[in-house]
Design goal:
The chain has 468 residues and is α/β, with parallel strands linked by helices. The protein has 3 domains: 75 residues, no CATH class; 118 residues, Aspartate Aminotransferase, domain 1; 249 residues, Aspartate Aminotransferase, domain 2, CATH 3.40.640. The protein has a 7-stranded mixed β-sheet, sandwiched between helices. Helix 6 runs antiparallel to helix 14. The structure holds pyridoxal-5'-phosphate. The site of pyridoxal-5'-phosphate (PLP) has 15 residues, from helix 8 and strand 11.
Length: 468
């Protein structure tokens, strides 16, 4: 039942045609077909109507308020939803924030092929049709020492492709300690089922020996598989079969030994005392026949799944029907090629690839960066925030190198006039959103994942959040 006041209030709401005459909406009528502006005005009025019907206290929105609301929804419709964010979390490969940030050269390479026609599938020397994979295969071979390489959409697709092309209808032996789930619903057991491979689990969660694989071999065995446990780590009383042992066993049966390496490093981070991940080259030297890894994890390139290994197996993968449906586009190939070029000179890779540069930042550098950032935010916020710098830890993220803590210095912020939740939310909603980490009743910003050029933007976003 509507009350008399409500009926009265509903009558006072403006009509769509009145809103459309307001000057706030005129530029929108010039920019968009009338239909979209009419709909935005209609929605704004409908919302006003609902407010009247649902609330006891009746307050009629003015035409100006409703027009402003329509403008907000038209802006939302026309502005990019996918946009840059400042990552202050200290998680270098933040899956929710787009994982690896591309190098300048990789970004330019993408723009170049986007703006123009390219030789994506055309051999310029001979003037005949070529393969899109040729552009990066040679580089991947040189950088990893593999006989052959191919690239698909992401590493999940790479694993699926290898299994369905080489092990469909056959048994695939995997250690129980490696039957993991990786963020975003990638489960080894389910990928196996989808691909048509039959999972044969061997060993126990903490210990699997080569004997366990040997005993599980049958005439139906089509593959030995090793999976990087990524974001999960078994410590203590553990044992696993070595790559060399698995490779030797696979060779005896003439079946492939495939390793899902997850991240896949081309730059030797362990030589800098960071983690203990073997490089892709080392894994191949230890005997893996086929390896797959992501393009946008530790490699620091675009989203992609890279498969390297023995030519005979890779040739079978390339010929498979599924290859077409997993193929990468020209932007990915352009970014990947430019990223791989950096690796020809490891010093250049460490300098130019943001993922590596951020992981390799040193504590002293981070301490002075944290102090500079703190100073900038103090300058913007005045007394509204309590600000200090504190030692802390950053993470590599992306399921790469679990348990590796990179020492850093953070700016720790305590809001004095609004709540921490409000500050955190308003920073997220700023025109250039800033995402930090909330811990111990403070907001932490880690300069490891910010560049110095970002600092003035960070302080602008603080001004926005504090409305000053
Ligand atoms: C990350 C990861 C995947 C999935 O790779 P995407 O490139 O994200 O598809 C698969 N396997 C392992 C072991 C991983 O760490």
């Amino acid at each position: 039942m509507t009350t008399k006041e409500q009926r009265e209030a509903l009558r006072r709401l403006p009509a769509v045609h009145e809103l459309l005459k307001r000057e706030e909406l005129i530029p929108w009528l010039e920019r968009l077909p009338r239909e979209w502006v009419t709909r935005a005005a209609g929605d704004a009025i409908a919302m006003g109507r609902r407010e009247i019907l649902e609330n006891e206290a009746v307050r009629v929105r003015s035409a100006a308020e409703l027009a402003a609301r329509a403008v907000v929804s038209l802006r939302r419709l026309t502005e990019p939803r996918l946009r840059p964010v400042l990552n202050g979390t200290g998680v270098v490969l933040h899956t929710n924030l787009g994982r690896a940030v591309l190098s300048e050269a990789a970004t330019e390479a993408v723009q170049r092929v986007a703006r123009s026609a390219s030789n994506l599938e055309f051999r310029l020397e001979e003037g005949v049709r070529g393969s899109r994979y040729d552009h990066v295969e040679d580089l991947l071979r040189r950088l990893t020492g593999a006989e052959a390489a191919m690239v698909v959409n992401n590493n999940a697709a790479a694993v699926f492709h290898v299994l369905q092309a080489l092990a469909r209808g056959k048994e695939v032996i995997v250690s129980r300690g490696q039957l993991v789930e990786i963020g975003g619903s990638f489960r080894v057991s389910e990928i196996m089922r989808e691909s048509g491979g039959r999972l044969v689990e061997v060993g126990t969660t903490n210990k699997t020996r080569i004997r366990d694989y040997e005993q599980a071999l049958t005439d139906e065995t089509g593959m030995l598989m090793k999976v990087h446990t990524s974001n999960f780590r078994i410590i203590g009383f553990t044992e696993e079969a070595s790559r060399h042992e698995l490779a030797t066993l696979a060779r005896k049966r003439d079946i492939p030994f495939f390793e899902d390496l997850g991240s896949g490093v081309l730059y030797d981070l362990k030589a800098h005392g960071i983690g203990d991940e073997p490089t892709v080259r080392e894994c191949l030297e230890e005997g893996a026949d086929l390896l797959s890894f992501s393009g946008d994890k530790l490699l620091g390139g675009p989203q992609a799944g890279i498969i390297v290994g023995k030519k005979s197996w890779i040739d079978r993968l390339k010929k498979n029907q599924l290859t077409r449906s997993l193929r990468v586009d020209k932007f990915t190939l352009a970014a990947l090629e430019a990223t791989l070029h950096h690796y020809l000179n490891p010093e250049e890779a460490a300098r130019e690839i943001p993922t590596l540069r951020q992981i390799l930042k040193e504590e002293g550098e981070l301490q002075s960066a944290a102090e500079q950032l703190a100073e900038r935010i103090r300058g913007a916020a005045g007394e509204a925030l309590g600000i200090e710098t504190v030692p802390a830890h950053s993470e590599v993220g992306g399921g790469s190198m679990p348990g590796v803590e990179l020492p850093t210095h953070c700016v720790a912020i305590t809001p004095r006039q609004i709540s921490l939740t409000q500050l955190e939310r308003r920073l997220r909603q700023a025109p250039v959103p800033v995402v930090g980490r909330v811990s111990q009743d403070r907001l932490f910003l880690d300069p490891r994942t910010l560049e110095e050029d970002d600092f003035s933007q960070v302080s602008d976003s603080f001004r926005y959040a504090l409305q000053i």
